[in-house]
Design goal:
Blueprint: H1 8-23, H2 41-55, H3 61-66, H4 70-85
Helix pairs in contact: 1-2, 1-4
Amino acid sequence: MKAQYHSAEERAAALTEIWRQVLGKPDLDESSDLFDHGGSSLHVLQIVGEVHDRLGANVKLRNVFRNPSPVLLADFLASQADSETAPRP
């Protein structure tokens, strides 16, 4: 993940901007559910691409389906980063 997105707040803010851009809805906030605001499978594909381009994070389609708001996806990305940096036995 790109260095400027290491804090949870920075990730959530970046993801909120992605949601706004992809859905064309500037009033969305970090708790806005993708599917409650007209999101579709095509939007999920776009979000996955934008997350990779902007944050440098590799997310799968299912990760967005399971975490359909910016804050939920930010939390998921944080948990993934934590598991990657945790020492292995």
